[in-house]
Design goal:
Number of helices: 9
Number of domains: 3
Pfam family, one: DAO
Protein name: FAD-dependent oxidoreductase
Helix content: 25-40%
GO molecular function, one term: 2 iron, 2 sulfur cluster binding
Bound molecules: flavin-adenine dinucleotide
CATH architecture of the largest domain: 3-Layer(bba) Sandwich
Largest sheet: 9 strands, mixed
CATH topology of the largest domain: FAD/NAD(P)-binding domain
Keywords: 2Fe-2S, Disulfide bond, Iron, Iron-sulfur, Metal-binding
CATH class of the largest domain: Alpha Beta
Length: about 500
């Protein structure tokens, strides 16, 4: 493998380093999590004159926002026909309007701060090569007409995918998300905002003044808190764990012998395929994505990157593979993000999550909405995104299915292991074994060293599954992911896995 297993966005980055929290602090608002949601919210709050601290357990942009494909669009799959049927025309219209306003606001900030982030307008396409989905896509076009969305039904597309029908949404956009986040974080600092990196937060005491507790024992006392940690690490009895599920996707970047014809593409068929391009280090890189599945639930051991590349090679004249990476995002019960107050008993704690892989515009919607709530401005989208909403259809159906799946993974994980011996374990692979009555995960590294951990997720106790592609232990219930040595990589878990002295 001579290509890099990192997101293109993280390469050759001209970034500031920020300190970790090394003293107790005070602020009007503490924003926890420095991805697109946290950085944008912190920036907008500081622009409104508030004293704000932004804090992250890693580096800024090291979460999903630094692993995205960064299409900035209101074309979020075939969502408008579904939203019209579940919530009605008015709510579907509001959703579209909020997303288009977000796109415009991103463009406005880029212009205002002269951010060099390859922002460019592109048309977005959904397409299908399946007769059943063709009817659904035609129905989606009908929804566009109902909502006055500027769309076009097509029998051909600029790019060479086998297809029978496509739906275009005009004048959408794309950018380089890390260049944008780095610049916005800098603009936030210049407004007096303070950024702390490498400081995991593990708790919020929500008395009159909220106290944010960092793992390194320091605290931040503040009036209001924004949880922008992707999955809310603090749920405050609002049960987000049962109301969202995580799913992963894979991205491969390549150069081609052909010229990229423009456009951003997404298939609506069972095998998701996504495509856009970017000029990076003076080369035209095609970014091809797909391979979606629930986190921690691996149907087979085949290399997802290999499958992705086989698929890309069928359609395009690949010259050289350059990058590959993967990431995950959360989907809510009714597919509408949760943005607003954590719950009615915690009026001064806000959160934003559940973007269903459409976080470029949704993070801006969230930043605007939460800023308006904190500075007590009216905002037309409060009810639409209110996290405490419940719609009997589709929430109930999805709630049962999500939690049946979680319960199944919980139980199967606990009982479904076989005893086996480490001698049979191949290098660079892992398996679960019983050890003194406990299930543990053992991984044999390239030097044949064994790393053994308790495979019980430290978030809510689900049994973890081995992800052989990334060499991680992944939670099939809520998406926490751990390094084979036990350290937390992402998700709601705060504590590392217990290491086991297996050989003794
Ligand atoms: C493969 C893939 C492709 C995608 N492509 C697109 C696309 O083309 N267009 C689009 O609109 N959307 C896309 N998305 C979705 C989008 O990338 C996400 O919705 C968005 O980046 C989420 O941003 P966020 O700021 O909420 O979360 P994140 O970027 O994950 O930020 C959360 C931050 O919180 C920090 N954190 C977590 N826990 C703690 C803690 N306890 N203490 C302190 N800090 C903590 C993390 O370190 C992280 O930096 C894609 C998603 C995936 C998975």
């Amino acid at each position: 493998m001579n290509h890099k297993r990192i997101p293109l966005w993280q390469e050759d980055r001209d970034r500031n380093n920020y300190p970790s929290l090394d003293k107790n602090e005070k602020a009007e608002v503490a924003v926890i999590g420095a991805g697109l949601t946290g950085i944008t919210t912190a920036y907008l709050l500081a622009s409104n004159g508030l004293d704000v601290i932004l804090i992250d357990r890693g580096k800024i942009g090291s979460g999903t926002s630094g692993h995205t494909t960064a299409k900035i669009t209101a074309q979020h799959g075939m969502i408008y026909s579904e939203f019209i049927s579940h919530f009605g025309k008015e709510q579907a219209q509001l959703y579209f309007q909020s997303q288009m306003e977000a796109l415009a606001k991103i463009e406005e900030l880029i212009e205002k701060h002269h951010i060099d982030c390859h922002f460019e307008k592109q048309d977005a396409y959904l397409y299908t090569n399946d007769e059943k989905n063709k009817h659904k896509l035609e129905a989606e076009f009908e929804a566009y007409r109902t909502l006055d969305i500027d769309g076009e039904g097509l029998l051909e597309m600029p790019v060479n995918f086998p297809m029978s029908y496509a739906l275009k949404m005009k004048d959408q956009a794309q950018f380089h998300p890390m260049a944008y986040m780095d610049a916005l974080a800098k603009a936030f600092s210049e407004l007096g905002g303070r950024i702390y990196e490498n400081t995991p937060v593990y708790d919020i005491d929500s008395a009159d003044h909220r106290v944010i507790r960092a793992v390194n024992q320091h605290t931040i006392v503040c009036d209001q808190v924004v949880i922008a940690t992707h999955f809310p690490f603090y749920e405050g009895e609002a049960f987000y764990s049962g109301r969202m599920y995580p799913s992963r996707s894979y991205v491969a970047g390549f150069t081609s012998n052909g010229k990229y014809p423009g456009g951003m593409y997404l298939s609506v068929d069972q095998q998701t395929q996504s495509l856009r391009s970017i000029i990076h280090n003076e080369e035209e890189i095609w970014l091809f994505g797909g391979g979606e599945h629930k986190t921690g639930q691996y149907k087979h051991n085949e290399e997802p990157y290999r499958l992705l590349k086989d698929m890309a090679s069928q359609h395009f004249d690949v010259k050289e593979w350059k990058y590959e990476w993967s990431a995950q995002d959360y989907t809510t019960l009714d597919k509408m993000p949760y943005i607003g107050r954590l719950n009615k008993n915690r009026q001064k704690i806000f959160l934003a999550t559940g973007y269903r892989k459409w976080g470029m515009t949704n993070s801006m919607v969230a930043a605007n909405l939460i800023t308006d709530m904190i500075i007590q401005n009216d905002n037309p989208y409060i009810d639409l995104y209110r996290p405490s909403r419940f719609h009997p259809d589709p929430d109930l159906k999805q709630f049962i299915s999500t939690n049946t799946n979680v319960a199944k993974e919980f139980i199967m994980g606990k009982i479904g292991n076989k005893n086996d011996h480490i001698d049979k374990l191949e290098i660079n692979t892992a398996k679960k074994v019983k050890h003194h009555g406990q299930t543990i995960g053992i991984y044999k590294d390239t030097h044949e060293k064994i790393h053994a951990v308790d495979t019980t997720c430290t978030h809510l106790g689900c049994e973890l599954n081995w992800n052989n592609t990334e060499k991680t232990w992944d939670c099939p219930c809520h998406g926490s992911r751990f390094h084979y040595k036990g350290d937390v990589i992402e998700g709601p878990a705060i504590k590392p896995l217990n290491k086991i002295d297996y050989l003794n």
